Every structure is written in structure tokens, then in C-alpha cells.
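Appendix B: complex inputs.
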Amino acid sequence: MQLELSPEDAAFREEMREFFTTKVPQEIRTAVAERRELSKEQIVESQQILNAAGLAVPHWPVEHGGQDWSALRRHIWHEEMQRACVPLPLAFNASMVGPVIAQFGSDEIKERFLAKTANLDIWWSQGFSEPDAGSDLASLRTTAVRDGDEFVVNGQKTWTTLGQYGDWIFCLVRTDPDAKKQRGISFLLIDMTSPGLTVRPIELIDGGHEVNEVWFEDVRVPADNLVGELNHGWDYAKFLLGNERVGVAPVGATKRVLAQAKEYAGEQLKDPLTAARFAELENELLALELTALRVVANSADGKPHPASSVLKLKGTELQQAVSELVVDLAGPASWASGADDDSELAGWARRATPTYLNLRKASIYGGSNEIQRQIIAKTILGL
Amino acid sequence: MDFTYDDEQQALREAVRGLVGKAYSDFESRRQAVKEDPGFDEKLWARLAEMGILGLPFREEDGGSGAGPVEVAIVAEEMGRVLAPEPFLTSVVLAGGIVSAGASPEQRAEILGALSGGESVLAFAHAEPGTRWVATAEGVTATQDGDTWTLSGVKEPVPHGARADQLVVSAKLPEGGTGLFLVDPSAAGTERTGYATHDGGRAARVAFDGAAGVPLGEAGADRTPTIAAVLDIARVMACNEAIGAMEVALRATTEYLKNRKQFGVPLNTFQALNFRAADMYVSLELAKSLTTWATMVIAGGQPDEMADAARRAALGVSRAGRHLGQEAIQLHGGIGMTAEYSIGSYTSHLTALDHLLGDGNFHLSTLVAGIGEYDEVDPLD
Ligand SMILES: Cc1cc2nc3c(=O)[nH]c(=O)nc-3n(C[C@H](O)[C@H](O)[C@H](O)COP(=O)(O)OP(=O)(O)OC[C@H]3O[C@@H](n4cnc5c(N)ncnc54)[C@H](O)[C@@H]3O)c2cc1C
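Resulting structure:
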């Protein structure tokens, strides 16, 4: 056992820190630091800067722009990005559809999509969930029926995050209605400008528009846009969801918000109860970070460690707890969420409650925390 | 000892539920009401006045009906059940409460008469940037010149401060202490910027620049104890409102667990979820007991006891409100995050109530500081 980073890894960390804090525009990083919503352009710009330096998709195969890094280095890369308030590469592209295409797609599909996906020339949306298929994703009903060289897609997806920016959507569709529910699903790439496809906004409780409903009415999709084999989509989805869980504990970002919260707190830090809450949260975050390090240090074959569910579960809980603390620090000022900059109250205080409400989502999506407990109980504890 | 409502109280509850509960029986009507300023239904406000609800806490000679805290609590709870956006708590209980406790008899009759009759909305401009739920004012100062007083400084957030026809303002007195003033918001030297709060409520920044203020009650007197006592009453009524909201949030959640199917079965097939709902119920019942007790202590009218009970109830309700609110969204899954569906708004409103007059930690700090001064807590003492 050994605690310190090797000199090489330590140098790597310095290199990452240097890059993220000097090459990504300050304006974008300030927006992240202040928890303001980023524009589509800012997200694209940031990812393209990373990609040009080979830092957008290091976990992809080397021939598609990945880096031959250890799991530890990937972890360091990920944490340093968060520390520096650099927007993470768009998850739909970098952690979801990209790795699936790289692993299971035909050469032709790889050629068409991977470079553009890494560079965010294509903005991907995730079309998995449906109104009646949430945690029970495999019960999805959107159908794709083969007609000559095309699939004809009908149905409805929902909760499509940032679908309003989407150029393409990767969907799970039912291609064999007679097979057992996991068996008849395929993984299809759909151009969101296709006729018959409509996107409708859903307003969330923080007043923001980040999710959408997506309707498909006789949308014609070239059969070439199928990833992998027909009716094997569930395997690819499981692969994708496994990846989704790995990077999902935003330890670095949560630590940063907690550190910022100390500044917000000012005099309130003298209150022993408030100070105790900080200390508790710091300790829990420390435990989580160490667990994340243990996980990366031990996942040599690149497969998600079974304990990645711990990271998702606890990571989202702590993210939520810190946002709750920030609302409490704001106190009465937290009422002023609708005020503009003429307000006498600090911007962070005005954004505190919408952020807190918005983050309730973190324990719901990407496999809800109940589903994570289920995974821990079943696959780890053998219950 | 009796924790139940008598027949009259029961009748009041049904009457309020009949009016408010019906007006907002479907969530969409509430959504429409909060969409545009003033953020509530003026017609419903007038109906509440007709029913005598807006004058409930005030003396009969002031135009009210002289009811007690239990009746006021019943109304607050019913408002909470449907998240009624009408400013009963902030305008009647809080601002009206300050006038009732602190104004001269003539002022009371005039102001509370208009408030009870639904002709005038009041706002208590008290919170100041940088202060947290104290009973004093620092940032708005009062200056005296003979018989005239002027105010300067900023109050924010002021609940319903933009719609209010009259402002009750706390201000630092030249000789020290906190005074109370009435300000006509349309007069020179007052500037208001209103906005919606996250839960569909309304608040404002109110800036005074030499605005004329009429002393409420005795001029130049330190009114901190009056403010503190009314804040305590309002805290307990906020608890009652929260209890109403929590009750409905729990019921909506249990209904959802029975109806929502995943994996081919209703969610209540999963014991883990049922147990979570059971824990929500435990939180709710405990918070309800504290709240009912505190309401009765308020009726007793002893300032020290009122303050202690308000703190304890507010602490319990703060914890319970977070527990219920967070779980309600979680157990609903994605739908709980949406603005069209009610449950997230319950959580949002519980969060707003929690931060209106002092959250759990604020009250806990005070309790912690006094923990060595007594050996046990006896609610019947
Ligand atoms: C803000 C947001 C963004 C999202 N973005 C996307 C996106 O971009 N693309 C996409 O495809 N999807 C997206 N989702 C959808 C998300 O993945 C689903 O909301 C999630 O899978 C839960 O499904 P559900 O909402 O239908 O809840 P349900 O599955 O109905 O669950 C309701 C409750 O029951 C619990 N539950 C369900 N089954 C069980 C069980 N077997 N045992 C114990 N508890 C159980 C859940 O944990 C939850 O608490 C997003 C969701 C949100 C809220």
C-alpha cells in the first residue's frame, strides 16, 4: 500500500491543473463556479478546447482519440476538471454514446460519428426513458419497424435532457414485439431534424427548461443507423449505464461548492452548529473521495467496480446535502430567487433554492438511488 | 387536555376547505393564479374577507372577529393543504399581527378594518440583507424631525411587498432600539421591485430614501418585544401551514405508490418504498403534535413560553418538512421534478416556509445555548 501519487502521476496532476486553469476561458469557469446556467456555445467551446488537446474523451479507445491512461489518471483528469470549474465533456457524447459506438458500432458508423462526437460537432441526446418505462427501462414501447432500407419509428421518449440542443438522439427502440422484453430492443441513432420528430419542453420545479418530451410519428431512419446487432440493444444499454454510474459521483464539484460555501458563510462559521455541519460533510466527502480512489486503484481491467453504485448513491446524497446547506446559509435571502441583479441579496443566495430543488433529480436519474441499493443488495451482497 | 377541534372549529375548517380547497382543488388553477402578478386570486381574497377569515385574529372593535390562535391555525393549515398563494400568513398573521399588537386603537381600527374587509393588503417590511430572522432592524434607519419621521435603507425580501397597499416597516431608532412605522408605498421616497419566489409566492426589494413614516403606536419606543412575540406567533402559524402541505404531500405520495406501475407491478409492491412512506408518516405525526401543542401555548399568551414553543415546533417542522418534501419527490421519480405536477411545488413551498421566519438550525442554536438551564422539558407545565 502507498498513499502518495507516484512522481509521474503527481506531474500528470500538475499538468492537468495547469491546462484546465489556463486554457479554458475564465468566463466559462466563472459561470460554473457561480452555478449559472451555461449556454450551448459555452459548453461546445469548452469541449472543443479539451478535445484539441486530447482531453475530451481520454477513456475512449486510443484510435478514436482516447488516451492510454490508467484508471487513476482518468480519475485525476476528472477531478481536476471539476476543481478548475471546467464544464465536464457532455456526458451523452463522451460517456454514453461514444463508448457504445466505439465498442459495438460498425467501422462505417465509427467513421461517421466518433470524431464529431468527441468534438461536440454533434450534440447527442439520450432517448431511453418513456412515460411508463423509467426504472423499468426494458418495458419501453417505442417501436422501430423495418421497411426496406429504413426503420419506421413510432412512440414517445421523455425526460430527454437538453433535447432542445440535440442534433442526434440515441434511442432504445423495440424491434421485436414478440420477444421477452429485454430481448427485442435495439440501439438506434436518429437525426433529430427528421420529419415526424418533435421536441416539447417540460418545465421543472426550479423554473428551468432542461428536459423534454420527444415524439416520433412515422420517423424514417436509415437502417445503417443501427448500432451493433438487431435486438441486442439491451446489452449496449447496460454497458452504457454502467459507464454512466462510474463518473457520476461529482466529488470534485461537491468539494468545490462546499469550499465556496465557507466563503458564503462568513460570520456564520462561528456558529458551532453550522461549523459542525461543514465538518460532517467534509468528512463524508473525504470518505467518498477515498472510496473513489480505492475503486479506481483496483479496477485494472477497466470494468466498472461493483462499488460504483456506492459512489452514485452517496455522491448524489452529498451533492444534495451541500446544496441544502447553501440554502440554509442564504437563509431569508433564499426567498429572492426571482430577483434580478438589482436585488440587494447576493447572487449565490438567490440561486440557492432553485439549485437545491433542481438537484433533487440527481438521486432519480441514471438509475435511481433505490435501484442502486437494489444493485448493491443483489450483486454485491448476494441477497 | 384536549387536542381535538370543537364543533365550531370543525365548521370553520370545513368552510375554509370548501372555499380555498375548492378554488385550488386541481393544481392547474393554482399554477394559473401564481403565474401573473399579484400572484394570487384577488376574487378569492375578497371571498375570504366576506367569510370573516381575514379578520379572524383581530379584536371585534378593530373590525375582526376576535378568534384565537387555534382558529387561525385551522385556516393556515387549510391554506397549506392546497398551497393557496393568498397572503394569509404574511399579510394577516404577520403584518396584521404587528398592527394588532403594536398600533394605537385608532390605527388598529382603520388598518385592520381595511385588512379584514379585504380592501387593503398589508406587508411587514422587516427582513434586511445580511441579517437572519432577528427581531430588530439595523439597515433601515428612522430619523425624527419634530413630529415627522423619515425612513432610509433597504428591506428585502418583503413578502408581497410590491402588491401591498400599506407597508409596516421596522426601523432603527435614533436613540437605539427598533421602532415600527407605517409607510404609504406610493408616497415619495419609496421604491419597490417585486418578483416571484421559487414557490410561486411574491416578494420585493423595498428601498426607502427619506420616505415619510407614521409611527405605529407610541412614537420613538423600542418595539423589539412586540416584533419578537408576533414573529413567534407567525412561526407557529407557518408550522400549521406546513403541516397542511405535508399531509397532502404524503397522501399524494402514497396514492402514487399505489398507482404507478414499474416492473409490471404497482410501486407499493416494494416494501422498501412502503417503509419510506411509513417514515414520512412518523415525521408528520411528530411534527403535528409539536405544532398543535405550540398553537395552544400561543393561545396561553406567555411570551417566554410562546418563544420556547415556537422554537421547538419550528425545529421539528423544519426537519419534518425537509424529510417529507425530499422523499415525496424521490418516491415520485422524474414526475416529481416537474412544474406541471403538484408534488415538487409542495417541496418548494415547504422550503420557502422553512426560510421565512427561521429554519431548524436557527432555532436549534437558541435551544442549544439554553440547554443547561433546565433539567427536563414538560409540555404540560
Ligand atoms: C432531470 C432528469 C433528467 C433526465 N434525463 C434523462 C435523459 O436525458 N434521457 C433519458 O432517457 N432519461 C432521463 N431521465 C429519466 C430517468 O432516468 C428516470 O426518471 C429514472 O429512470 C426513474 O424513472 P421514473 O422517473 O419513471 O420513476 P419510477 O421508475 O416510476 O420510480 C418512482 C420511484 O420508485 C422507485 N422504484 C422504482 N422501481 C423500484 C424497485 N424495483 N425497487 C425499489 N424502488 C423502485 C424509484 O427509485 C423512484 O423512487 C431523466 C430524469 C430526470 C428527473
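The longest strand of chain B covers residues 202-215.
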